[in-house]
Amino acid sequence: MKSTSPAPEMFAQTLQRHFGKRVSTHVSLGQTRIDVDANDYLDVMQRLRDEPDLCFEQLIDLCGIDHSAYGKTLWTGRRFAVVSQLLSISKNRRARIRCFVPDDIFPSIPSIRPVWNSADWFEREAFDLFGIVFTGHGNLRRLLTDYGFDGHPLRKDFPVSGKVEARYDAGRGRVVNEPTTAKAREIMPRRFPE
Question: What is the pTM of this model?
Fold first, then answer.
């Protein structure tokens, strides 16, 4: 049974009918973006999966975003957002869900791991790289950086040059962090004659 995807504008109207003012929808380049408040995030995601005329069976991706240095202008809104990509195989449509995290100091949002099990590693990655805490996750720990790593490397305020280096010490049988021995230098590209 093959289903054709309705126009994104019609799909946006369907979303408004289901969620009312709890979401705002935007259509750009043939894809629908759904903005949802953090208080409604888990419920909206659950209904996007379970409602028969929405039926988003798959979470394709989830990532964190730091808007603190967004483009060439000063960003004035919330700093952190979580963006999810959903796919409905039966309805042949995709949707992007964006939820801004309410607290910039301690960014925290409900986990959607109970809704889509595939959110497990995506949320761990966003926690590790951006410091966004997903409450109710159950196994939220670093995924890409070392357990002793200080900070979150994809935040815009993370220092570009490090002060310590990590290496494996065979004598101790573990990874150790030591002050870096590299000297800071500026590398200028060569200019070729015109």
Answer: 0.78
